[in-house]
Fold:
Amino acid sequence: MRTVYVNGDYLPEDEAKVSIFDRGFLMADGVYEVTSVLDGKLIDFAGHAARLDRSLAELDMAAPVTHDELLAIHRELVSRNGIEEGMVYLQITRGAPDDRDFAFPDPEATPSTIVLFTQNKPGLADSPVAKQGIKVISIEDIRWGRRDIKTVQLLYPSMGKMMAKKAGADDAWMIEDGHVTEGTSNNAYIVKGGKIITRPTSNDILHGITRAAVLRFAQEAQMEIEERLFTIDEAKDADEAFITSASTFVMPVVEIDGVPLGDGTPGKVAPRLREIYLDESRKAAI
Ligand code: PMP
Structure:
């Protein structure tokens, strides 16, 4: 049984409790982060902590712990649960007021709720899926206008994932005004003539921590990058495509809406970027 963290306590998972009045439960009034673990160490903890601060600030929510405390909690959970490869999930909500109300509660009277738990995923880095690549479908992006805030409001991305499964694919890329925004839980890229093309950051997409690292490594490796909008038709005509996220790292995409990309295999750029990302991340892990 896992040991989890709830509001200052380390508890067995079946003893951890959150109020039914918690605004995370009633209103999706909460933010989260997922930090991956390789070799028992945290990947890009500083990036995730910085984005957490930004999400909290955008929602006028107080941070219940400092970065140092957060790091200590992450490490304690990784250690107590013996995680070598996997993830640490962190969620902070606006807490549990006495009753349900649309207005935000007074933060003095209602402290935020903080929950962390680990997910054990042996073989995460050496994934056979990464050697094969994934298939995506395209769906309309009907999410709200602040996708840069990492909220727990994940119903549409979940529905997108189910639409993909039903269509025999692995994930969905979302389309707004003809252009790809991002995957259900990842950032989206295409490769054309050796050039990596991805949507620039804005309120329309999550500013992926993996995205920032991968683009930095790509630049250091003298790869050409173009941050611009791209259409789904352009994507289907690309040589390669891939996604990035904390839990998939760099994952090749080999098919979009049933159209194979290139020769239908992962290609050269995505597998190379995955290798660089994993090597560099392991070196910098804490
Ligand atoms: N976009 C969305 C919508 C996501 O949910 C995620 C992962 N949570 C990402 C992009 C990738 O972000 P990161 O690289 O920080 O995991």
